[in-house]
Automatic annotation (TrEMBL):
Pfam families: Aldo_ket_red. InterPro entries: Aldo-Keto_reductase (IPR050791), NAD(P)_OxRdtase_dom_sf (IPR036812), NADP_OxRdtase_dom (IPR023210). This is Aldo/keto reductase. The keyword Lipid biosynthesis does not apply. The keyword Oxidoreductase applies. Residues 16-306 form the NADP-dependent oxidoreductase domain. The lineage of its organism: Bacteria, Pseudomonadati, Pseudomonadota, Gammaproteobacteria, Lysobacterales. PANTHER family: AFLATOXIN B1 ALDEHYDE REDUCTASE, ALDO-KETO REDUCTASE YAKC [NADP(+)]. One of its GO terms (cellular component) is cytoplasm. Keywords: Oxidoreductase. One of its GO terms (molecular function) is oxidoreductase activity. PROSITE patterns: PROKAR_LIPOPROTEIN.
Length: 331
């Protein structure tokens, strides 16, 4: 497995990470046995970075990962955890809480659910508009000093917030959406990260399956699949976006790889400081994603992709109106 560093302050991790969110209902029903088998297969293939959030399935995802890791040496993997999202018993979203006391309480429960004594990268899922980022980062810095957290990460914040946070404690990486159809980080956020020596862990590299080559206009999504509320998966937006995938399919055929592999390879090619998170829920999809590591893109390939997927090419926002409003990275 190829390795990359999470910035100048973070650990060395596998070039691909496994995003585990989809194993806990966010994309509809998931099979527990297959989820655990997929985590095992990822670890066996050399993937070391496992990403989760304490609010994925209201703790279900952390407990699932904790079960899957039983018997695995703690130094053979890294756990990246997001916190702060507040949810009701019906699964509704209630905002964010990143007050220092809430940070430390959230970590205490996370350690129990994951059956571990430390988290490798700990990060607020979003900027809490009621709490200065310096206060949130200061609380994580306390946890680093106490040994419960190894490194500080951020998620979906803009360049100014990144600078303010890094001034309090070194930031290892920024987790943010980045793909052929989500390139909003390129003007300001990515340059700020590179100036400060902060890596990017890119989620949504297949735009939640939209550019995977497996989604079709007649795809029947589970009623609990949050993509049913995503602007990019609706109406004329979906028609437009799938036409882009048709072009991507032609380019992938020329490279003798799958659509998903080409899309992941593009993110890998954007720089050694970027680690794509693949949201594979099955061993089949994981195997496909791992194949992206063998796809080499030359200057002509990258130019062809740039012509087809210039910034802003996708139709529809990447979240619904409420989700977009919560993103400091979009301000």
């Amino acid at each position: 497995m190829q390795q990359r560093n999470l910035g100048k302050h973070g650990p060395q991790v596998s070039a691909l990470g496994l995003g585990c969110m989809g194993m806990s209902g966010m994309y509809g029903a998931a099979d527990r046995g297959e989820s655990i088998a997929t985590i095992h297969a990822a670890l066996d293939a050399g993937i070391t970075l496992l990403d989760t959030g304490d609010f994925y399935g209201m703790g279900h995802n952390e407990m699932l990962i904790g079960d899957a890791l039983v018997g695995r040496p703690r130094d053979s993997y890294q756990l990246s955890v997001k916190f702060g999202a507040q949810r009701g018993p019906a699964g509704d979203w209630l905002g964010y809480d990143a007050r220092p006391a809430a940070v430390k309480t959230a970590l205490a429960y996370t350690l129990q659910r994951l059956r571990t004594d430390h988290i490798d990268i700990y990060r607020p899922a979003r900027l809490d508009p009621k709490v200065p980022i310096e206060d949130t980062v200061g609380a994580i810095a306390d946890l680093v000093k106490a040994g419960y957290v190894r490194h500080l990460g951020l998620s979906e914040v803009g360049a100014e917030t990144i600078r303010r946070a890094n001034a309090v404690h070194p930031v290892a990486d920024l987790q943010i959406e980045y793909s052929l159809v989500s390139r909003g980080i390129e003007p300001a956020i990515l340059p700020a990260c590179r100036e400060l020596g902060i890596a990017v862990t890119a989620y949504g590299v297949l735009s939640r399956g939209l550019i995977s080559g497996h989604w079709t206009a007649g795809h029947a999504a589970d009623a609990k699949d949050f993509r049913t509320h995503s602007p990019r998966f609706q109406g004329d937006n979906l028609t437009h976006n799938l036409s882009l995938v048709d072009t991507l399919r032609q380019l992938a055929k020329a490279k003798a790889c799958s659509v998903a592999q080409l899309a992941i390879a593009w993110v890998l090619a954007r720089g050694g400081d970027i680690v794509p998170l693949v949201g594979a829920r099955t061993r089949e999809r994981l195997t496909e994603a791992l194949g992206a590591l063998d796809v080499k893109l030359g200057a002509d390939d990258l130019a062809a992709l740039e012509r087809t997927f210039p910034p802003g090419v996708a139709a529809g926002d990447r979240y619904n109106i409420h989700g977009m409003a919560s993103l400091d990275s979009e301000r």
